Amino acid sequence: MKADFYTEVYNIVREIPEGCVVTYGQLAKLARRPQCSRMVGQAMFNVPKELNLPCHRVVNSQGRLAPNWAEQRGLLEKEGITFKKNGCVDLKKHIWEDILPII
DNA sequence: GTTGTGACTAGTG
DNA sequence: ACACTAGCCACAA
């Protein structure tokens, strides 16, 4: 069911600390669907803004940001995220590795 | 049931 | 760095 997976993703995204980022793959793994990284992206696009999730802290494995979303860069900069020269997030510094062993 | 789509990932050139 | 491919999954039409 999408609702359950989405809920898991939202719940995790909500826990992302300030100044940190997380990849779709990690998020998918934490949501107990390691292969569904694409669904994480869909979940982020469909996320109700009312939930006030820090979806701007979710990036892909390369540290690339969501396409056609100029705001994300500014939001991350405000959070204290640093970018490389090419504009990608410095994953090594800000990647969120706090694995929560649900189950 | 099949097809097209995507805010993905890893690999290759 | 970029472009492309193949694998992957769930959803919408």
Automatic annotation (TrEMBL):
Single GO biological process annotation from the record: DNA repair
GO molecular function, one term: methylated-DNA-[protein]-cysteine S-methyltransferase activity
Keyword Methyltransferase recorded: yes
Cytoplasm in keyword set: no
Domain of life, per lineage: Bacteria
Keyword tags: DNA damage, DNA repair, Methyltransferase, Transferase
Methylated-DNA-[protein]-cysteine S-methyltransferase DNA binding domain residues: 4-81
Known EC number: 2.1.1.63
Catalytic activity, reaction form: a 6-O-methyl-2'-deoxyguanosine in DNA + L-cysteinyl-[protein] = S-methyl-L-cysteinyl-[protein] + a 2'-deoxyguanosine in DNA; a 4-O-methyl-thymidine in DNA + L-cysteinyl-[protein] = a thymidine in DNA + S-methyl-L-cysteinyl-[protein]
Pfam families the record matches: DNA_binding_1
UniProt cross-references to InterPro entries, sorted A to Z: ATL_DNA_repair, MethylDNA_cys_MeTrfase_AS, MethylDNA_cys_MeTrfase_DNA-bd, MethylDNA_cys_MeTrfase_DNAb, WH-like_DNA-bd_sf
NCBIfam families for this protein: ogt
PANTHER family the record matches: 6-O-METHYLGUANINE DNA METHYLTRANSFERASE, ALKYLTRANSFERASE-LIKE PROTEIN 1
Name this polypeptide is given: Methylated-DNA-[]-cysteine S-methyltransferase family protein
